[in-house]
Design brief:
six-stranded mixed sheet, single chain, alpha+beta
Length: 665
């Protein structure tokens, strides 16, 4: 959408908003489009596209006809936009409600719904002043990015398009192509599930996103209608958890402490867990519980030659399949690629659609926040000053068709403080889109299990207010359900949270799987954050004299040591917290990612990326510890490979072949 089209849509919007009786197509063509080409067919197509674009931005374009005339007659058909039908109702929030709303808006982080959540939040801020609130000390819950498949399914679900994908069927263990009408998407048991109508089986089915073996293709030429009363939460509540089973694994002596911690005692080992044969020399045989063979296979594949799945057979097959896929991908030819300039987050390129959406939020924001410094306005919308001034220049040239100077938007910023004196009925934000309503309402529902947040009435009251404001779009939030947020060990979570609030130092006994060792250290905790219900805390570690991140479920013991945390310590950056703290001695590694695995570029904060024709990426990522990179490649089973440095790529290939050799090649 070119800049001229952006201006045209904005002027069309203002014209349709500011007419009581409607404007005929001929009037719009002459006064807004300034089209004298005489080509009625081409103009008609352009006008229909523009009407659809305005509807996507949340505006209902009404069609009016004179009594007795048909809508098919352009000479008698008029168009307008009702001034109230498209507007977001006023939402008055108390400070406690703003607190939980801000937490909910931050949950999605890098998923596509993260952009929608921030857009919805800006609309709420545009209609009034944001209360001066403080978020809970050091608390930053987040929903774990579920990859490109998640974003694709959400986009298809909200636009009512079917999808097709290859799927590893749990019943047969074979890849099957499925065509599905997506009704809902939700998280249960640590996994994301798609629920929809399977066209081949003519019945509703559940599909786990981690079993998708291809990219999701959206059939954008087709449409469907989901059941009117569908609720993804109720549907997933009926989904039974997989039964607890026992696996047999041979583990290298003295290694894999994290896995050994979960080993069953002899008295707990089920009789049917016995496996034929004996472990190789230097290995020990253990049994452990599991529910999902694919999840355990991902972990065991990452251990490579230090572990071998022995039973059951489906687990063995799953590990071998991951290792084989990783080895084959690592041996494939290196693609041609060219890096784009170093990027800053967010990585998604800005489009003219983003610009128009931003301008429609900018006008009501300026109306309610007169006199702000121009840089403060730019920071609020996450753009540079130059980008904001581009927006303002387009706005001040926009107004009523063939109007006088007083009929143009009047915005001034010559003294670096922005004032608006003529808003042309753009003084209230547009109602929530489906994405925006789902992002906030699902985020609020997800906070229900978070300690210290669910108590009190703020969470319930802000949810009811947003449901009322969102209208029909809010009802469609029933198609999306977030994960459980409660920490597995509430006592450790509470200890760390109290230490952050009181600025206390903690003594920590910590198991590091990458280094395969247990260490004792004193730390000054700075903030708690999560990916779903896996919680971490960032702290200044006095053992290494630097910032480090610790997983709560790897903490074996923690208690205040009686000392105060050092003064002047701050977390590594703003929301969201990063899982990885960069250091000067990090190694820059070039990796290739498939379309399914491209989300890893965001997960690991890639510094540069290059798009590939198949939808994959080549990315440059900084790693502090390169010894675990073969584990990283194996864990993702064919979704990632190392390209450079060559010695690391070679080491990974050798390691993968050694791992496969444990399974007979």
């Amino acid at each position: 959408m070119s800049v001229s089209r952006t201006e045209r849509l904005l002027n069309l919007l203002i014209a349709l908003l500011n007419t009581r009786y409607g404007l005929r197509r001929s009037e719009l063509r002459e006064k807004v489009y300034h089209d004298t080409s005489g080509n009625d067919v081409a103009f008609g197509r352009m006008f229909e596209r523009d009407k659809n674009d305005l509807r996507q931005f949340g505006f209902d374009v009404e069609t009016l006809t004179d009594l007795g005339w048909s809508e098919d007659d352009p000479a008698t058909t008029r168009y307008r936009i009702g001034k109230e039908s498209n507007r977001l109702p006023d939402v008055q929030l108390e400070p406690e409600e703003w607190t939980v709303l801000l937490l909910a808006s931050q949950l999605w982080e890098r998923a596509a719904l993260g952009t929608a959540a921030q857009s919805a939040l800006r609309k709420l801020k545009a209609s009034g002043q944001l209360a001066d609130v403080e978020l809970p000390a050091g608390l930053q819950p987040r929903i774990k990015p579920a990859g490109q498949a998640f974003d694709d399914v959400v986009a298809a679900m909200h636009s009512r398009h079917p999808v097709t994908f290859s799927y590893l069927a749990g019943s047969t263990g074979k890849d099957e192509v499925r065509t599905v009408e997506p009704w809902g998407l939700g998280s249960r048991f640590g996994q994301w599930y798609l629920v929809g109508h399977d066209r081949a089986r003519q019945a509703a089915r559940h599909f786990r996103l981690s079993r998708f073996t291809s990219a999701v293709a959206i059939l954008d030429k087709e449409h469907y209608s989901p059941p009117a009363d569908f609720n993804i939460r109720q549907e997933l509540d009926r989904l039974p958890e997989l039964p607890l089973r026992a696996a047999v694994v041979d583990v290298r002596e003295g290694r894999l402490l994290a896995l050994r911690r979960r080993a069953l005692a002899a008295a707990e080992t089920p009789a049917d867990a016995a496996a034929p044969g004996r472990p190789d020399a230097g290995f020990e045989r253990i049994a452990l519980h599991f529910r999902d063979p694919e999840i355990l296979a991902e972990e065991l594949a990452s251990y490579g030659p230090d572990a071998r799945a022995v039973a059951p057979e489906e687990l063995v097959v799953a590990v071998r399949r991951r290792l084989r896929a990783a080895a084959d991908f690592s041996e494939s030819p290196t693609p041609d690629y060219s890096f784009s300039p170093a990027r800053s987050r967010p990585s998604r390129s800005r489009t003219s659609e983003d610009q128009l959406k931003r301008m429609l939020q900018l006008v009501p924001f300026l109306v309610h926040n007169q006199g702000l410094h121009i840089q403060e306005v730019a920071d609020h919308f996450g753009v540079s000053r130059d980008e904001l001034e581009d927006d303002l220049r387009i706005l001040i040239c926009s107004g009523l068709p063939e109007g006088y100077p007083d009929d143009l938007l009047d915005i001034q910023w010559e003294n670096d403080h922005v004032f608006i004196t003529q808003d042309l009925d753009l003084n209230r934000p547009v109602r929530f889109t489906v994405d925006e309503a789902c992002a906030l309402l699902t985020g609020l529902e997800t906070l229900n299990g978070l300690p210290g947040i669910a108590e009190g009435g703020a969470l319930e009251s802000v949810t009811l207010k947003l449901l009322a404001a969102a209208g029909e779009e809010g009802l469609r939030a029933a198609s999306l359900a977030g994960p459980e947020m409660g920490p597995a060990d509430a006592a450790i979570h509470d200890t760390v949270r109290q230490a952050i609030g009181s600025r206390s130092r903690l003594h920590l006994t910590y198991l590091s799987p990458q280094r395969d060792k247990v260490s004792e250290r004193d730390v000054d905790p700075l903030r708690l954050y999560s990916l779903d219900n896996t919680w971490y805390f960032e702290a200044y570690c006095h053992l290494v004299d630097g910032l480090r991140n610790f997983r709560l479920d790897r903490v074996q013991d923690v208690y205040p040591n009686g000392q105060h945390a050092a003064d002047g310590l701050t977390a590594s950056g703003a929301v969201p917290a990063k899982l990885f703290t960069p250091n000067d001695d990090d190694t820059t590694v070039t990796v290739q990612l498939t379309r399914q695995g491209r989300g890893l570029a965001d997960d690991y904060y890639a510094e540069r990326t290059a798009e590939l024709p198949d939808g994959g990426l080549v990315a440059e990522i900084r790693f502090g510890n390169t010894a675990w990179l073969p584990m990283f490649v194996a864990q993702h089973g064919g979704a990632v490979r190392i390209i450079a440095p060559e010695d690391l790529a070679t080491s990974a290939r050798v390691w993968l072949e050694a791992s496969l050799a444990r399974y007979g090649g």
